[in-house]
Amino acid sequence: MIPLPKGRPTFCAVNLACLRWNFRQVRKKVGRKINILSVVKANAYGHGAGQVARTLADAGSDGFGVATLEEGVELREVGIRTPILILAGVYPDQLEETLRYRLTPVLYDLGTLERLESELRRRRASLGFHLKIDTGMGRIGLLASEIDGWISKLGRLKALKFDGLSSHFSHAESEEEEYTHGQLTTFTAVVERLRQAGLCPPLIHMALSAAVITLPSSYFRMVRPGLILYGIPPSPVMADSITLKPVLSWKTRILQLKRVPKGSSISYGRTFVTQRESLIATLPVGYADGYHRLLSNRGAALVRGRRAPVVGRVCMDLTMLDVTDIRGVKQGDEVVLLGKQGRESISADEMALWAETISYEVLTSISARVPRIHYSSKAST
Predict the structure, then answer these.
(1) 91, 262, 268, 375: which is the annotated catalytic residue?
(2) In what order do the strands lie in the sheet with 319-322?
């Protein structure tokens, strides 16, 4: 049983048994010799970073990836002791906290490397780091093509300890593999050049969720699964390649039922006008909760195991459904915004399609005012 919140009934139920299941599928894919860095940035993709990280640590995760120093501190404060990699790096004025909380930054430019090296020497301290290489993502990282200009500088580092090397695929979820393989070839060449120079970091990693499924040659010594841990394939074409279980469902209850005559306008702007006498259900959820305004007159939710369309504009705190064709609807009935009810389900990918975005944004946009209720269902193990 899911422990329901008191008061406002809008919440996300996070099934930790499904999370453990998905982690085991990754372990089966990569084997026991490959380290798994579980990516729990952005509040564990909206699932609740602290509880998710504790669950994955117990399941055997070798470390965790976050985006910011603050996210790393949060994990340390809930008891995570395994390595934490700050994937978007740290700023020089964050060095004190980086050392205090034993966090490992990903560094990606020579200026930051030099400033941190200088400050660490002044403190007579040391800090492990991973180096990011840009092999074609075009985001952050030292350019692989400019290796002749920076490889010698790595060899002169003393206080900074070169513990890892990484890069990032830009197109691994696509069936167009040529660019992906080109990135992998480039990264492999960088690894070899570093080895020839006597620079052999213990952890080399490039594979994110999509590459975990499709590209074993990119595993190296560590993989960085993110979305697949939460039960969502990076692309629909990958759904048959790994058996995943969605971890999060988003639920609420009908706040008010109202029967309105033909010609009634619903919500702001009169974007929906009833074409018949209609039964309208108002829900206590809106775009301030992360239920995207683009779902206005596009989305749907599940009521008594059937789909009910969103009608009118999604408001900041309220959303309306047309439940005219669903028998027996009552005030207080459960409504599933994301997840399964009866034989019907709404996936993050489907909601993303309605909102013209991606599943990542659907999950990470669910706001902090929506409680996350963590539980384990034995039926999901």
Answers:
(1) 268
(2) 256-260, 278-283, 319-322
**Residue 73: in which H helix or E strand, if any?**
helix 69-77
In this structure, CATH architecture of domain 34-229: Alpha-Beta Barrel (3.20)
- Tokens coding 2: 């899911």
Cα–Cα distance, 194 to 180 (Å, whole number): 21
Residue 251 appears among annotated catalytic residues: no
Measuring CA to CA, which residue among 233, 235, 211, 238 is closest to residue 222? 211
CA distances from 112 to 4, 108, 131 (A): 47, 8, 11
Q: What is the DSSP string of 133-174?
A: EESS--SSSEEGGGHHHHHHHHHT-SSEEEEEEE---SSTTS
Contact call for residues 343 and 304 (beta carbons, < 8 A): no
pLDDT in tens, 117-133: 999 999 999 999 999 99
Q: Catalytic one among 29, 41, 245, 251?
A: 41
Is 262 noted as a catalytic residue in this protein?
no
Q: Which CATH architecture has domain 248-380?
A: Beta Barrel (2.40)
Q: Is 380 helix (H, G, I), strand (E, B) or coil?
A: helix
- Extents of the domains making up the chain: 34-229, 248-380
Contact 33, 58 (CB under 8 A): no
Q: Render pLDDT for 131-152 as a digit per residue (tens, 0 to 9).
A: 999 999 999 999 999 999 999 9
Whether the model clears a pTM of 0.85, i.e. scores above it, the answer is yes
